[in-house]
Amino acid sequence: MRTIALLPEGTVSHEAVLYLFGDEEVQLKHYKQISDVFLSVVNGEADYSAIPVENTIEGSVSLHMDWLVHEVDVPMQLEWVYPSIQNLIGRKEEFQSEGKMDYSKIKRVLSHPVAMAQCQQFIRTHMPQAELENVGSTAEAIQSVANHPGEGWTAIGTVLGAERYGLDPLARKVTDHNNNFTRFVLIGPDKLALEGKEATRKTSILVTLPADFPGALHQVLSAFAWRKLNLSRIESRPTKKKLGNYYFYMDVLEEVESILLGAAIGEIEALGCQVRVLGSYPSYSYTDLQTES
Ligand SMILES: O=C(O)C(=O)C[C@]1(C(=O)O)C=C[C@@H](O)C=C1
Questions:
Q1: For residue 245, what pLDDT band results from cuts at 50, 70 and 90?
Q2: 26, 61, 92, 147: least CB-packed within 10 angstroms?
Q3: CATH (one of 3.30.70.3270, 3.30.870.10, 3.40.190.10, 3.30.200.20) for 87-171
Q4: 252-281 pLDDT per residue, tens
Q5: Which positions ≥6 away from 52 have C-beta within 8 Å?
Q6: Ligand 1 centroid from CA 247, angstroms
Q7: What is the pTM of this model?
Q8: Residue to probe by mutation, ligand 1, list 60, 138, 175, most atoms within 8 Å of CB
Protein backbone atom coordinates (compact mmCIF):
# COMPACT_ATOMS: atom_id res chain seq x y z
CA MET A 1 0.00 0.00 0.00
CA ARG A 2 1.30 3.47 -0.88
CA THR A 3 1.96 6.03 1.84
CA ILE A 4 1.16 9.63 1.01
CA ALA A 5 2.36 12.63 3.05
CA LEU A 6 0.05 15.63 3.03
CA LEU A 7 -1.32 18.59 5.00
CA PRO A 8 -3.69 17.95 7.97
CA GLU A 9 -7.01 16.15 7.93
CA GLY A 10 -9.77 18.27 6.48
CA THR A 11 -7.59 20.44 4.20
CA VAL A 12 -8.26 20.90 0.47
CA SER A 13 -5.14 18.74 -0.01
CA HIS A 14 -6.83 15.95 1.97
CA GLU A 15 -9.98 16.14 -0.20
CA ALA A 16 -7.83 16.21 -3.33
CA VAL A 17 -5.78 13.12 -2.33
CA LEU A 18 -8.93 11.14 -1.41
CA TYR A 19 -10.35 12.10 -4.79
CA LEU A 20 -7.18 11.15 -6.71
CA PHE A 21 -6.88 7.67 -5.29
CA GLY A 22 -10.63 6.93 -5.23
CA ASP A 23 -11.15 3.30 -4.22
CA GLU A 24 -7.43 2.50 -4.01
CA GLU A 25 -6.31 2.00 -0.43
CA VAL A 26 -3.56 4.40 0.58
CA GLN A 27 -2.03 5.22 3.92
CA LEU A 28 -2.18 8.95 4.68
CA LYS A 29 0.41 10.71 6.84
CA HIS A 30 -0.74 14.18 7.84
CA TYR A 31 1.67 16.97 8.76
CA LYS A 32 0.88 20.45 10.08
CA GLN A 33 3.52 22.27 8.03
CA ILE A 34 4.14 21.99 4.30
CA SER A 35 7.90 21.78 5.01
CA ASP A 36 7.28 18.53 6.90
CA VAL A 37 5.15 17.23 4.02
CA PHE A 38 8.15 17.79 1.72
CA LEU A 39 10.62 16.24 4.16
CA SER A 40 8.50 13.14 4.73
CA VAL A 41 9.34 11.74 1.29
CA VAL A 42 12.97 12.86 1.60
CA ASN A 43 13.30 10.95 4.89
CA GLY A 44 11.63 7.85 3.47
CA GLU A 45 8.56 8.15 5.73
CA ALA A 46 6.24 8.32 2.71
CA ASP A 47 6.30 7.10 -0.90
CA TYR A 48 4.96 10.41 -2.19
CA SER A 49 4.29 13.89 -0.84
CA ALA A 50 1.21 15.78 -2.08
CA ILE A 51 1.97 19.44 -2.76
CA PRO A 52 -0.41 22.21 -3.93
CA VAL A 53 1.54 24.21 -6.53
CA GLU A 54 -0.85 26.49 -8.41
CA ASN A 55 -4.27 28.02 -8.00
CA THR A 56 -6.64 29.62 -10.52
CA ILE A 57 -7.02 32.78 -8.48
CA GLU A 58 -3.72 33.11 -6.69
CA GLY A 59 -1.37 31.68 -9.35
CA SER A 60 1.73 29.84 -8.17
CA VAL A 61 1.99 28.91 -4.51
CA SER A 62 5.44 30.51 -4.33
CA LEU A 63 6.52 28.99 -1.03
CA HIS A 64 5.82 25.49 -2.31
CA MET A 65 7.48 26.12 -5.68
CA ASP A 66 10.56 27.40 -3.86
CA TRP A 67 10.70 24.27 -1.71
CA LEU A 68 10.48 22.12 -4.84
CA VAL A 69 13.38 23.98 -6.40
CA HIS A 70 15.69 24.98 -3.54
CA GLU A 71 15.06 22.73 -0.56
CA VAL A 72 14.48 19.25 -1.92
CA ASP A 73 15.60 17.30 -4.96
CA VAL A 74 12.75 14.84 -5.47
CA PRO A 75 11.12 14.46 -8.90
CA MET A 76 7.50 15.34 -9.68
CA GLN A 77 5.77 12.06 -10.61
CA LEU A 78 2.12 12.99 -11.15
CA GLU A 79 -0.04 16.08 -11.40
CA TRP A 80 -3.78 16.50 -10.95
CA VAL A 81 -6.31 19.27 -10.65
CA TYR A 82 -8.99 19.56 -7.99
CA PRO A 83 -11.58 22.28 -7.29
CA SER A 84 -10.92 24.34 -4.16
CA ILE A 85 -14.40 24.69 -2.72
CA GLN A 86 -14.22 27.00 0.28
CA ASN A 87 -16.93 27.48 2.90
CA LEU A 88 -17.47 29.68 5.94
CA ILE A 89 -17.14 27.40 8.96
CA GLY A 90 -18.18 27.96 12.57
CA ARG A 91 -20.80 27.00 15.14
CA LYS A 92 -24.38 27.38 13.96
CA GLU A 93 -25.69 28.24 17.41
CA GLU A 94 -23.17 31.06 17.74
CA PHE A 95 -24.06 32.87 14.49
CA GLN A 96 -27.53 31.77 13.46
CA SER A 97 -30.92 32.40 14.93
CA GLU A 98 -34.07 30.88 13.40
CA GLY A 99 -31.90 29.57 10.58
CA LYS A 100 -30.75 33.08 9.62
CA MET A 101 -27.09 33.92 9.57
CA ASP A 102 -25.97 37.02 11.49
CA TYR A 103 -22.64 37.98 9.95
CA SER A 104 -22.27 40.98 12.27
CA LYS A 105 -21.39 38.57 15.12
CA ILE A 106 -18.21 37.48 13.32
CA LYS A 107 -15.12 38.96 14.97
CA ARG A 108 -12.38 36.96 13.30
CA VAL A 109 -11.85 34.92 10.13
CA LEU A 110 -8.96 32.45 10.01
CA SER A 111 -7.61 30.58 6.98
CA HIS A 112 -4.67 29.68 4.81
CA PRO A 113 -3.56 32.82 2.90
CA VAL A 114 -4.34 31.22 -0.49
CA ALA A 115 -7.84 30.20 0.64
CA MET A 116 -8.38 33.64 2.24
CA ALA A 117 -7.44 35.32 -1.05
CA GLN A 118 -9.98 33.16 -2.88
CA CYS A 119 -12.79 34.62 -0.77
CA GLN A 120 -11.76 38.31 -0.51
CA GLN A 121 -15.00 39.76 -1.92
CA PHE A 122 -17.21 37.50 0.18
CA ILE A 123 -15.39 38.50 3.36
CA ARG A 124 -15.41 42.21 2.51
CA THR A 125 -19.11 42.20 1.64
CA HIS A 126 -20.41 40.17 4.57
CA MET A 127 -18.01 40.76 7.45
CA PRO A 128 -15.93 43.89 6.86
CA GLN A 129 -15.61 44.28 10.64
CA ALA A 130 -13.79 40.95 11.08
CA GLU A 131 -10.09 40.62 11.77
CA LEU A 132 -8.36 38.30 9.30
CA GLU A 133 -5.73 35.83 10.46
CA ASN A 134 -3.58 33.66 8.21
CA VAL A 135 -2.55 30.21 9.45
CA GLY A 136 -0.72 27.15 8.02
CA SER A 137 -3.74 25.41 6.48
CA THR A 138 -7.52 25.63 6.25
CA ALA A 139 -7.74 22.70 8.69
CA GLU A 140 -5.59 24.51 11.26
CA ALA A 141 -8.01 27.45 10.93
CA ILE A 142 -11.03 25.23 11.54
CA GLN A 143 -9.36 23.57 14.52
CA SER A 144 -8.56 26.96 16.08
CA VAL A 145 -12.20 27.99 15.69
CA ALA A 146 -13.26 24.74 17.37
CA ASN A 147 -10.93 25.61 20.27
CA HIS A 148 -12.44 29.11 20.74
CA PRO A 149 -16.18 28.65 21.19
CA GLY A 150 -18.29 31.74 21.80
CA GLU A 151 -15.56 34.21 20.73
CA GLY A 152 -16.96 35.10 17.29
CA TRP A 153 -14.32 33.11 15.40
CA THR A 154 -14.95 31.56 11.96
CA ALA A 155 -12.77 29.83 9.37
CA ILE A 156 -12.64 29.55 5.60
CA GLY A 157 -12.20 25.88 4.73
CA THR A 158 -13.69 22.61 3.56
CA VAL A 159 -16.89 20.82 4.57
CA LEU A 160 -14.69 17.78 5.27
CA GLY A 161 -12.76 19.94 7.78
CA ALA A 162 -16.00 21.14 9.42
CA GLU A 163 -17.07 17.51 9.88
CA ARG A 164 -13.67 16.43 11.25
CA TYR A 165 -13.56 19.14 13.90
CA GLY A 166 -17.27 19.11 14.84
CA LEU A 167 -18.28 22.46 13.31
CA ASP A 168 -20.90 23.55 10.76
CA PRO A 169 -20.71 25.07 7.30
CA LEU A 170 -22.34 28.50 7.91
CA ALA A 171 -22.22 29.44 4.21
CA ARG A 172 -21.24 27.10 1.38
CA LYS A 173 -19.16 27.77 -1.75
CA VAL A 174 -18.02 31.24 -0.78
CA THR A 175 -15.13 31.55 -3.26
CA ASP A 176 -15.34 34.72 -5.36
CA HIS A 177 -14.94 32.86 -8.68
CA ASN A 178 -16.63 29.61 -9.65
CA ASN A 179 -13.70 28.15 -11.56
CA ASN A 180 -11.40 27.89 -8.58
CA PHE A 181 -9.08 24.95 -9.12
CA THR A 182 -5.80 23.96 -7.50
CA ARG A 183 -3.04 22.03 -9.23
CA PHE A 184 -1.40 19.43 -7.03
CA VAL A 185 1.71 17.32 -7.63
CA LEU A 186 2.95 14.10 -6.07
CA ILE A 187 6.71 14.08 -5.62
CA GLY A 188 8.62 10.89 -4.92
CA PRO A 189 11.41 8.61 -6.16
CA ASP A 190 9.21 6.24 -8.25
CA LYS A 191 7.14 6.74 -11.38
CA LEU A 192 3.36 6.67 -10.95
CA ALA A 193 0.34 6.56 -13.26
CA LEU A 194 -3.36 5.91 -12.66
CA GLU A 195 -4.56 2.79 -14.43
CA GLY A 196 -7.12 3.35 -17.15
CA LYS A 197 -7.19 7.15 -16.84
CA GLU A 198 -6.39 9.56 -19.65
CA ALA A 199 -3.38 11.76 -19.03
CA THR A 200 -1.42 14.49 -20.78
CA ARG A 201 2.37 14.09 -20.60
CA LYS A 202 4.22 17.01 -19.10
CA THR A 203 7.82 17.88 -18.29
CA SER A 204 8.77 20.63 -15.83
CA ILE A 205 12.16 22.25 -16.28
CA LEU A 206 14.15 25.10 -14.77
CA VAL A 207 16.23 27.19 -17.12
CA THR A 208 18.91 29.55 -15.83
CA LEU A 209 20.08 32.04 -18.45
CA PRO A 210 23.75 33.01 -18.79
CA ALA A 211 24.55 36.53 -17.61
CA ASP A 212 24.86 39.32 -20.20
CA PHE A 213 23.44 37.40 -23.13
CA PRO A 214 21.07 39.70 -25.01
CA GLY A 215 18.03 37.87 -26.36
CA ALA A 216 18.77 34.67 -24.39
CA LEU A 217 15.14 34.11 -23.37
CA HIS A 218 14.01 34.71 -26.94
CA GLN A 219 16.41 32.00 -28.16
CA VAL A 220 15.32 29.58 -25.45
CA LEU A 221 11.69 30.08 -26.46
CA SER A 222 12.49 29.59 -30.14
CA ALA A 223 14.07 26.20 -29.36
CA PHE A 224 10.56 25.12 -28.29
CA ALA A 225 8.63 27.16 -30.88
CA TRP A 226 10.15 25.81 -34.09
CA ARG A 227 9.80 22.23 -32.81
CA LYS A 228 6.12 22.99 -32.09
CA LEU A 229 6.59 22.05 -28.44
CA ASN A 230 3.77 23.52 -26.41
CA LEU A 231 4.67 25.43 -23.22
CA SER A 232 1.73 25.44 -20.81
CA ARG A 233 3.42 27.59 -18.17
CA ILE A 234 6.42 29.87 -17.90
CA GLU A 235 7.30 31.81 -14.83
CA SER A 236 10.36 33.62 -13.52
CA ARG A 237 11.51 33.19 -9.92
CA PRO A 238 14.51 34.62 -8.08
CA THR A 239 17.56 32.34 -7.91
CA LYS A 240 18.03 33.59 -4.30
CA LYS A 241 21.74 33.99 -5.04
CA LYS A 242 21.93 37.58 -6.26
CA LEU A 243 19.44 40.44 -6.50
CA GLY A 244 18.03 40.54 -10.04
CA ASN A 245 19.03 36.94 -10.91
CA TYR A 246 16.12 34.82 -12.04
CA TYR A 247 15.52 31.36 -13.39
CA PHE A 248 12.61 30.36 -15.61
CA TYR A 249 10.26 27.59 -14.59
CA MET A 250 8.62 25.99 -17.64
CA ASP A 251 6.05 23.25 -18.20
CA VAL A 252 6.33 21.58 -21.61
CA LEU A 253 3.56 19.31 -22.91
CA GLU A 254 5.90 16.47 -23.90
CA GLU A 255 7.82 13.59 -22.29
CA VAL A 256 11.45 14.26 -21.47
CA GLU A 257 12.42 11.06 -23.36
CA SER A 258 10.98 12.42 -26.63
CA ILE A 259 13.51 13.20 -29.36
CA LEU A 260 12.10 16.70 -29.83
CA LEU A 261 12.27 17.75 -26.19
CA GLY A 262 15.71 16.13 -25.76
CA ALA A 263 16.95 18.11 -28.76
CA ALA A 264 15.41 21.36 -27.47
CA ILE A 265 17.10 20.90 -24.08
CA GLY A 266 20.41 20.13 -25.84
CA GLU A 267 20.10 23.30 -27.90
CA ILE A 268 19.29 25.44 -24.86
CA GLU A 269 22.31 24.03 -23.01
CA ALA A 270 24.49 24.74 -26.04
CA LEU A 271 23.47 28.40 -25.68
CA GLY A 272 25.11 28.37 -22.25
CA CYS A 273 21.91 27.98 -20.20
CA GLN A 274 21.59 25.53 -17.32
CA VAL A 275 18.62 23.17 -17.51
CA ARG A 276 17.32 21.12 -14.59
CA VAL A 277 14.48 18.66 -15.15
CA LEU A 278 12.10 18.71 -12.16
CA GLY A 279 10.03 15.82 -13.45
CA SER A 280 8.33 14.24 -16.45
CA TYR A 281 4.93 12.90 -15.49
CA PRO A 282 1.28 12.29 -16.37
CA SER A 283 -1.07 15.21 -15.78
CA TYR A 284 -4.74 14.47 -15.01
CA SER A 285 -7.44 17.05 -15.47
CA TYR A 286 -10.48 17.12 -13.19
CA THR A 287 -12.91 15.83 -15.82
CA ASP A 288 -10.53 13.07 -16.97
CA LEU A 289 -10.34 11.74 -13.46
CA GLN A 290 -14.12 11.57 -13.27
CA THR A 291 -14.37 9.47 -16.43
CA GLU A 292 -14.14 5.79 -15.63
CA SER A 293 -12.43 3.69 -18.31
O1 LIG B 1 -4.97 24.61 3.54
C2 LIG B 1 -5.41 23.80 2.73
O3 LIG B 1 -6.58 23.39 2.75
C4 LIG B 1 -4.52 23.30 1.68
O5 LIG B 1 -4.70 22.20 1.22
C6 LIG B 1 -3.45 24.23 1.16
C7 LIG B 1 -3.89 25.05 -0.04
C8 LIG B 1 -2.63 25.75 -0.65
O9 LIG B 1 -1.55 25.69 -0.12
O10 LIG B 1 -2.80 26.35 -1.72
C11 LIG B 1 -4.45 24.18 -1.07
C12 LIG B 1 -5.51 24.50 -1.80
C13 LIG B 1 -6.38 25.64 -1.48
O14 LIG B 1 -6.59 26.34 -2.66
C15 LIG B 1 -5.84 26.48 -0.40
C16 LIG B 1 -4.80 26.10 0.36
A1: confident
A2: 147
A3: 3.40.190.10
A4: 999 999 999 999 999 999 999 999 999 999
A5: 12, 13, 16, 61, 64, 114, 182, 183, 184
A6: 25
A7: 0.91
A8: 138
